[in-house]
Design brief:
This protein is α+β, with helices and mostly antiparallel strands. The protein has a two-stranded antiparallel sheet with strand order 1-2. A hairpin with a 2-residue loop joins strand 1 and strand 2.
């Protein structure tokens, strides 16, 4: 009798602890953003030939493609 009582008590305590530890349902939200899939960023716009050499800097690396703009940034920032 005592063994059955303790087993029942432990089973009840485990059920309560399991149910008390359940997390809330995960809430997910998403935002749709409109954009161009195939933007043509023209990095060669200012080139006059492939024999041109020089250093590309952050200030001279920009390219415009419709409403998008891309440029190099220092990765150490």
């Amino acid at each position: 009798m005592k063994r059955r009582f303790i087993s029942g008590l432990l089973a009840g305590m485990m059920a309560v602890s399991l149910l008390a530890g359940l997390p809330e349902p995960v809430k997910v939200s998403a935002e749709t953003v409109s954009g161009m899939e195939n933007a043509n960023f023209d990095f060669e716009d200012g080139l006059t030939g492939w024999d041109t050499t020089g250093t590309v800097t952050e200030e001279t690396s920009g390219a415009q493609g419709g409403s998008k703009y891309v440029h190099l940034e220092d990765s150490k920032r």
